[in-house]
């Protein structure tokens, strides 16, 4: 048996600390230890993007990150997008444009879209599709998601 | 069945010397881990027994892209995103930028490393064809010392490499193309993102006085490891741009490859499409 480590990280602006095995997957740490169940697991192999979170400024698949590699990091999950009662502009746009149906891909889509708009505030359709190309959706056919991201970008702040 | 998480130990050295000590003390006892984008997939799928991992990700000496007059040097931990973001890589090694863009999707590119792409030794990896075309060299390091191997001699068969169990890939050196260059990269997959190659072809040529003065072609998913198309190269090297023997070179190329049928494609498809992509490359070269 390996020894557990004390994992210290900042999640959505708050310092958190948990004891976990070093090879525990970040997605499990978030969901099971920190009870942040917004982040989803679809495939568990990096293909679907449902588990996307931002780690130290870059989006990653949290199903592929061992806890020990997240030591000391700063994370953004879907729970960190809204400011109190105010949905993030991307969340509003997804709501308005029906960018979410079953909603399983949505947390990952939102984090990937937020990352895209930070890097590229006025993306064209090709850039939106590339920015979201690691995120699979089985419901919407993507058109409404792309529309939502476009609308959020045009609405200014992202 | 998942890998057994409680059974896994991880060491996190912060210097290269520490990491090499661990590897030397128990050769084969600790599995290097960089971005984890290959290892964690195996582990999550239960296709790797619980074990001991040597996390390289905190070793600063393995990071960074360096440049001098003649060479670009990549630390083994350089990510695909770092290559995409580096203006010098765009300027000198456009095929490598295309390889990086064609790898997985952004979240994979943010994490996966060049060293991992090489040492994972998949025949379908997307940066090796570009590295072969550019004549890259690898810096390998162990407590016994540092050595340099030509990348085209590194892969020796399916998942077999000129890499000892106590060695790490420390860096990748790529000579900067000089003079008039021609760069071509084409990955053929099912979709643009997240698709492992059905085949991949990268080429680099230097043109001098209307002649092909330097010419290398790197191939992926067409042999048990990434390979150069040496026979096809020989048909083109030294020839005038205006008189490239396209048909003969295409035929020679068929002797350079030994594709297989697998879940991604077939021998027939791979042969036909490789020949076509190669011919398209030569046609573009003729007009370079
Ligand atoms: C969804 C998905 C899509 C992908 N798409 C592509 C694709 O399109 N094209 C492609 O080429 N790859 C693809 N990959 C595979 C993978 O992302 C790459 O091979 C990546 O470069 C691996 O790097 P890493 O740092 O994550 O390696 P790791 O998983 O950390 O390690 C991989 C192997 O290399 C060894 N290793 C790592 N670094 C060193 C070193 N410095 N010295 C010695 N040994 C070392 C490890 O021991 C291990 O055996 C994909 C993976 C996923 C999950
Ligand atoms: S669950 Fe992580 S990418 Fe699918
Ligand atoms: S809304 Fe159901 S998977 Fe995207």
Distance between the termini of chain A: 45 Å
CATH class of the largest domain in chain B: Alpha Beta
Name the biggest interface: A-B, 31 and 30 residues
Q: How many beta-strand segments of chain B?
A: 14
Write the element-wise H/E pattern of chain A from the N-terminal end onward.
EEHEEEHHHH
Strand content of chain A: 15-25%
Low-confidence spans of chain A: none
* Biggest sheet descriptor of chain B: 5 strands, antiparallel
Give the CATH superfamily of the largest domain in chain A. Beta-grasp domain
How would you describe what is shown here?
- The complex is a heterodimer of chains A (158) and B (288).
- Chain A is an alpha+beta fold and 158 residues long.
- Chain A folds into two domains: 5-80, Beta-grasp domain (Ubiquitin-like (UB roll)), CATH 3.10.20.30; 89-153, [2Fe-2S]-binding domain (DNA polymerase, domain 1, Orthogonal Bundle), CATH 1.10.150.120.
- Chain A has helices at residues 26-33, 89-96, 106-119, 125-131, 143-154; strands spanning 5-11, 14-20, 52-55, 58-61, 74-76.
- In chain A, strands 2-1-5-3-4 form a five-stranded mixed β-sheet, sandwiched between helices.
- Chain A is elongated and about 50 Å long.
- Chain A starts with a strand and ends with a helix.
- The mean pLDDT of chain A is 96.
- Chain B folds into three domains: 5-55, 2-Layer Sandwich (Uridine Diphospho-n-acetylenolpyruvylglucosamine Reductase, domain 2); 60-175, Uridine Diphospho-n-acetylenolpyruvylglucosamine Reductase, domain 3 (2-Layer Sandwich); 182-286, 2-Layer Sandwich (Enolase-like, domain 1).
- In chain B, 32% of the residues lie in helices and 26% in strands.
- Chain B has eleven helices and 14 strands.
- In chain B, 47% of the residues are buried.
- The model of chain B has no long low-confidence stretch (mean pLDDT 96).
- Chain A binds chain B through residues 1-2, 21-25, 44-47, 49, 52, 58-61, 63-66, 68-69, 71, 112, 115, 130-131, 133-135, and chain B through 3, 5-10, 12, 33, 36-37, 40-41, 43-45, 53, 55, 57, 81, 104-108, 110-111, 192-194.
- One FE2/S2 (inorganic) cluster binds next to loops of chain A.
């Amino acid at each position: 048996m390996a020894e557990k480590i004390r994992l210290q990280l900042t999640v959505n602006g708050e310092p958190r600390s948990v004891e976990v095995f070093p090879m525990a997957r970040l997605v499990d740490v978030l969901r099971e230890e920190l009870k942040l169940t917004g982040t989803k697991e679809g495939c568990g192999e990096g293909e679907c993007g449902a588990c996307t979170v931002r780690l130290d400024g870059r989006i990653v698949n949290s199903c592929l990150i061992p806890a020990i590699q997240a030591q000391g990091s700063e994370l953004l999950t879907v729970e960190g997008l809204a400011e109190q009662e105010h949905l993030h502009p991307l969340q509003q746009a997804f709501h308005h444009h029906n960018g979410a149906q079953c909603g399983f891909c949505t947390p990952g889509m939102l984090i990937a879209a937020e990352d895209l708009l930070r890097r590229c505030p006025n993306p064209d359709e090709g850039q939106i599709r590339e920015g979201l190309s690691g995120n699979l959706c089985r419901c919407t056919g993507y058109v409404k998601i792309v529309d939502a991201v476009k609308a959020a970008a045009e609405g200014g702040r992202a | 069945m998942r890998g057994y998480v409680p059974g896994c130990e991880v060491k996190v050295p912060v210097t290269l010397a520490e990491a090499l000590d661990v590897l030397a003390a128990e050769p084969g006892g600790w599995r290097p881990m960089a971005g984890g984008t290959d290892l964690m997939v195996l582990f999550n799928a239960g296709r790797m027994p619980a074990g001991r991992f040597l996390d390289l990700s905190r070793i600063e000496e393995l990071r960074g892209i360096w440049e001098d007059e003649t060479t670009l040097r990549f630390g083994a931990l350089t990510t695909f995103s770092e290559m995409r973001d580096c203006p010098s890589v765009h300027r000198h090694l456009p095929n490598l930028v295309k390889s990086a863009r064609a790898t997985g999707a952004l979240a994979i590119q943010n994490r996966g490393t060049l060293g991992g792409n090489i040492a994972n030794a998949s025949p379908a990896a997307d940066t090796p064809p570009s590295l072969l075309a550019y004549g890259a060299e690898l810096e390998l390091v162990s407590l016994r010392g540092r050595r340099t191997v030509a990348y085209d001699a590194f892969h020796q068969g399916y998942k077999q490499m000129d890499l000892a169990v106590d060695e790490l890939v420390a860096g990748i050196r790529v000579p900067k193309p000089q003079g008039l260059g021609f760069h071509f990269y084409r990955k053929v997959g099912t979709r643009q993102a997240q698709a492992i190659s059905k085949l991949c072809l990268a080429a680099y040529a230097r043109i001098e006085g209307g002649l092909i003065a330097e010419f290398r072609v790197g191939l992926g998913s067409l042999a048990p490891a990434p390979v150069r198309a040496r026979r096809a190269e020989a048909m083109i090297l030294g020839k005038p741009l205006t008189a490239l023997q396209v048909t003969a070179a295409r035929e020679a190329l068929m002797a350079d490859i030994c594709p297989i049928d697998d879940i991604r494609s077939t021998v027939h498809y791979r042969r036909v499409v490789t020949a076509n992509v190669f011919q398209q490359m030569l046609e573009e070269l003729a007009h370079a």
